[in-house]
Amino acid sequence: MKNRKSSALIVLLVMLYMVIPIVFTILYAISTKWQITLLPEGFTLKHFHSLFTNLRFYQAVGRSLSVSIISIALSFTLLLPVIYMGKVHFPWLNRIMRFVSMIPFAISGVILAVGLIKLYSSGPLAISGTVFILIGAYFVVIMPFMYQGIKTSLDTLEVKTLIDAAKLLGASEWETFWKVIFPNLIKGVSVSVLLSFAILMGEFVLSNILVGGNYETIQVFMFWSRGVSGHYSSAIVTSYFILIVAVTALILYLNKYDTKRG
Amino acid sequence: MGTVTINALSKSYGDLNVLNKINLSIEQGTFVTLLGPSGCGKSTLLRCIAGLIEVDEGQIMFGNEDVTHLTPQKRNIGMVFQNYALFPNLNVWENIAFGLKVQKLPADEVKERTREMIQLVALEGKEKALPSQLSGGQKQRVALARALVLKPKMLLLDEPLSALDAKIRKNLRLQIREIQRALNITTVFVTHDQEEALILSDEIFVMDKGEITQFGSAKTIYTQPANDFVAGFIGHYNILNTEHFEGFSKFSHKEGRFALRPEVIKISHAPSELAARVTAPMQVKDIILLGSILRYIVKDAYTELVVDCLYEEEIPAFKIGEQVFVHFEPEKLKRIG
């Protein structure tokens, strides 16, 4: 009993630690003035109003969503066949992939950004300053999470036996992949997708250095808006937080719906 | 399809010779078992028949058709795997109908044949359940229905009962045998369980180290083991050399190795009254209760024997350490070497 109480206390403290900054950010976003008083002097939605009537905000959100979704889709599309082939036909491929997928952890964002600018500012592939370099960089950033998610999902599936069973039922390898393997990967990979999405939506260093104002993402917009007012910045953070929660809830709901199917 | 014939089939992985010039013939409609310990090559042989493993040498014939190099998709073989291999994202109905849909059969036919199979394996009411919502026995029945729905020429069962508990295993093996007889489908069953092999099979192929060491009916395999390995694997045979019989009277053989079934040996307090029986005084070393069987381990200075008696009385007739007489009919002794 004592153990349960102390566990509950620890959970409560951790929750408070995580929730308090969010609550106060939201409060700050809807306060008129909050400088010398314990609580806000008054409440208003004017900061949200001015944010939601600013076209630049929607464009920034749209860019962040686009670049994140494209990077994740690209990562999934390119990594899945490689990991699948490594699992089914060429085990040596997965040894290489395991090593490659760990490299991004060893390189910090600034170093990666400077290296990429140097490499792609001239020559046949001069994409520096464009969204393409950002997609490339994001692909690298999320690779460890996507690789691990896909690999773990495949490992838990007993892929080889399923392929054998499908073959004996007359299915080609392509049919087996689409009708049997792929649908079973989605659930496992969705956690990696969520994690990657949250990382990319909150990413600032790479987007600011690589593209900055050329392709203003939500984080770069937030950086710019700090000069407008703290309340305005808090409104952006609150909106961004709600967006992430909504996307997370949607993916979790879809997963749950899929599990209950049948 | 006719007879399945396998001629001089070999398969190696590097230096490891998994199958060594296997020859066998399976008559249409029979239930045969590949029986052997882990690593003897029985599952590899099954997968070669299915086309899931390329053979190094040899030939596989279905009737007059050489299928050695045909893909699994073109062999029309149904297979049930030890771990079920059901598609986790598809429900019972969809799993069973999968092969029919892949063959793009008309929707009505898919529906009708799937329904028939669900009835055959008694899974009515479970059509919408996902594999994760089924018990082990139900999963294996879905796997069986999925394998049979395409009306395959041959059914391969790769240790399908190993992952199930004893009660379900007993029920399902009878169900498998009934279905096999009803459909008259040639079936190859792989197992390491000699009891399963003896109960289910028309013919048993005993395998050891990539070779078929003996084949025949269950009765032949059990009563006339061809060698030490079969005698040791198929039952709890006593394997004895001539010198082990030093303590026995009326033992007339000169040289050789012999197999003696535990249930043909009798124990009594007095020497056997039948003068023709081979008899020896021994001491009870241990008593093991195996349900309906009471197993005595008896010994003398030359050997140790396993003796199985029907467990009729509540208290065993003999005690550990007691002096007894063991005896058997001389013709029960099978020469194996």
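Residues 106 and 195 of chain A are 19 Å apart (CA to CA).
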